[in-house]
Amino acid sequence: MLLTAIVLPVLPARAQEQSLDIPPMRFAVVRSNAPGCEPNCPEWVSAEGTIAAGTPSLFKRTLKTLKGRQLPVVVSSPGGNVDAALALGRMIRKAKLDIAVGVTVFSGCQPEAKNCSDNKGKGADYFGMAFDDGAMCNSACPLMFSGGIRRVVGDFAYLGVHQITTTYKREKLLYRTTYRIVNGKKKVINTKVVSRKNAGSYKTYEMSKTVEKTLSAYLREMGIGDGVLEMMKATPASDIRQITLDDMLAMKLVTSRDAADLLTSAGLCAPQQPAANCREIPSPANNATPSAAATGKPRDVAPVGPETAKAGADMRFVVVRGSNPLCNPDCPEWISAEGVITSQTLPKLRQLLATLGDRRLPVVISSRGGDLSGALAAGRLIRERRLDVAVGRTDFVDCDPGAWNCLAKEGAYAGLSIDAGVECDTACALMLAGGARRLVGPQARLSLYPMGQKQMVKAYLEEMAIGPALFKAIAGRSAERRLEPDIMLKAGLTTGPQSVDALTGATICKAVPRPDNCRGLPPANAAAEAPAKL
Fold first, then answer.
1. pLDDT at 306 over 60
2. Which helix (H) or strand (E) holds 20?
3. Are 421 and 366 in contact (CB under 8 A)?
4. Which is deepest, 247, 376, 451, 482, by most CB within 10 Å?
5. Residue 490: its pLDDT value, please?
6. How confident is the model at residue 453 (pLDDT cuts 50, 70, 90)?
7. Which of 120, 373, 401, 151 is nearest to 255 (CA)?
8. What is the C-alpha to C-alpha distance for residues 314 and 368, in angstroms, rounded to an integer?
9. Residue 166 main-chain phi, psi, to 5 deg
10. Most confidently modeled of 48-62, 170-184, 259-273?
11. How many CA atoms lie within 13 A of 54 on its CB side?
């Protein structure tokens, strides 16, 4: 018998030190609770926390519960174990899932709560809304992110990389070897480890050739450019480098200029063909009606065009305060403008602006068009007041302002802005042209069609400092046409590629300088804690 002691390095554990204070990643299947969404709403997988060695096993369990449904993943993570991140990315790619950097704000039951019954009988375990404000995907997380089919990072999300930190753990092993002497020679019968002792550890902050080769092969497998790996190698492990959206597009790390809304907005379930992640929960009175997503049959949708522009309610203006919990107590406010443009649009807008005094709130507009003269007059008033305008709609949280018992609190209704599937047609586009900043996100739809009063429209566009290219685009079409973002930007109709979030996002009030449309409210107990007055 022979006892032998030897010190060996075990397999390296690659993890990011920044992630140690954040709990391990958990997964939850979430259903949108956007107002007016039911009975057919989008669903997604919320993935938040540190990537640990056991995270792929948890994700595998989640995928089994989906039974083949392809739900997008909304991830927010500081990073973690590299090998686990690679495994997660491959699982996401194999399942053909989309992914977005975002956080999920839950309502009712929280994933961390045990024995919660708040959502019992509602058809889903968790309800919430997905936002990119304050979301992050750092360190090893971009490797997981790379596995998505569609990959999106919003303007207010953060994706960063740095060097891989490799931790080598040393162990002192004591072996017992049993052998026999045969013809004067030692013949080993078996070898067994009888004890293991920790012999310390050490870290390296430079990427080894083996790790570099592994990551390079993985990124090529996912169709990602070499720039990501080069940026990782060039950034110290003690630092983190945010990758700009332009660079992410160039490296093919993202597939488009979109945010989490692209995969989670309620508008996904309204078009003629609902998205794959929509699920209809029939009401008790109509529990035999299957969803369009389940049957594959298209829904009946009213045609879009000038003939339908005058249908629906007249344009309504209300002041809205962002209700995203991430912004409290200092939240953005805006003017919601939704409905058909009529001759009464100008006086309604003027009346609302009079109540605001000198405050300049952006206008979030959604309209199928309407009266040409009314649009030009409203556009001129918007330009006179130097207001920004973005195409989008407002989802009201507590109640709809049209209800008799729905009252504004602190001068504004609570709501969230969204641009997915929102339309702004012809007369609406002319009203948009009056904005100081004019934004149409990639998920919104802006359409133009030939109209009368050509000289009036041409003079108006010149007055708004919009080049002749837009007027030519209108005059040269025989039918309605949706304008692409690059055409709108080139013609001067829009001032940038941003979406409505640039004016109403939950984190804009933290920017320097602080936007004009931010307003802080005192805490609910401020009055009680204030000193008594004589």
1. no
2. none
3. no
4. 376
5. 85
6. low
7. 151
8. 11
9. -105, 125
10. 48-62
11. 4
- 441 sits in the region (left: phi over 0; alpha: psi -120 to 50; else beta) called beta
Six-digit token pair at 60?
A: 């595998």
Q: Is the dihedral of CA 473, 477, 480, 482 positive or negative?
A: negative
Average model confidence (pLDDT) for the chain? Answer: 82
DSSP secondary structure string for all residues of 81-150? -HHHHHHHHHHHHHTT--EEE-EEEEESS-TT-SS--TTTTTT-SEEEEEE-TT-EEETTHHHHHTT-SS
Say which residue the tokens 């999300």 belong to: 157
Q: Cα separation of 50 and 77, whole Å?
A: 6
In this model, does residue 458 exceed pLDDT 90? no
Are 352 and 317 in contact by the 8 Å Cβ rule? The answer is yes
Report residue 171 as tokens.
């162990």
Per the document, the length of the chain is: 534
Matching residue, tokens 């003939």 = 307
Two tokens, residue 435 = 């904005």
* Contacts of residue 406, Cβ cutoff 8 Å, sequence gap at least 6: 398, 399, 400, 413
Q: Please check whether residue 501 is in contact with residue 324, taking contact to mean a CB–CB distance below 8 angstroms.
A: no
Helical H segments across 304-395, by residue range = 345-356, 372-384
CA 419 vs. chain centroid, Å, equals 12
Give the residue from 479, 370, 365 showing the smallest Cα distance to 433. Answer: 365
Which residues are CB-neighbours of 301 under 8 A, at least 6 positions away?
271, 272
Task: Give dist(CA 46, CA 28) in Å, integer.
Answer: 5
Tens of pLDDT, residues 186-197: 888 888 888 888
Bridge partners of residue 9, in order along the sequence: 170
